[in-house]
């Protein structure tokens, strides 16, 4: 793993350089700064959707378990 420290560090620094030194990167940073206030609301929405999906999966698993118990 030690031999990967330098290449990964250089890759990370290169990515940061692209983000801060290019016009497209600076444009993305401006968009992020302008829309950062919406992040908590979006995360809460995503959490609600994820919870509904988990509940749906749990219901399907319960049905499968019931059908397997009925067979035995």
Descriptive account of the structure:
- By secondary structure, the chain is an all-alpha fold.
- It has one domain (2-71).
- The protein has helices spanning 5-21, 23-35, 39-71.
- Helix 1 (5-21) crosses helix 2.
- The longest helix has 33 residues, at 39-71.
- It starts with a helix and ends with a helix.
- The model has no long low-confidence stretch (mean pLDDT 91).
Helix and strand arrangement:
Layout: H1 5-21, H2 23-35, H3 39-71
Helix pairs in contact: 1-2
What distinguishing features does this structure have?
72 residues, mainly alpha
How large is the radius of gyration? 23 Å
Contiguous helical run count = 3
Count of DSSP strands: 0
| Helix-strand topology string | HHH
Mean pLDDT: 91
Broad structural category: mainly alpha
Q: What gross morphology would you assign?
A: elongated
The amount of beta strand, in percent, is under 5%
Tally of discrete structural domains:
1
Summed up:
This protein has 72 residues and is mainly α. The chain is built from three helices and no strands.
């Amino acid at each position: 793993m030690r031999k990967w420290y330098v290449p990964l560090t250089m890759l990370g620094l290169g990515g940061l350089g692209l983000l801060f030194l290019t016009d497209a990167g600076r444009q993305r940073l401006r968009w992020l700064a302008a829309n950062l206030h919406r992040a908590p609301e979006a995360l809460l929405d995503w959490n609600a959707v994820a919870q509904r999906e988990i509940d749906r999966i749990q219901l399907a698993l319960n049905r499968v378990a019931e059908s397997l118990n009925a067979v035995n």
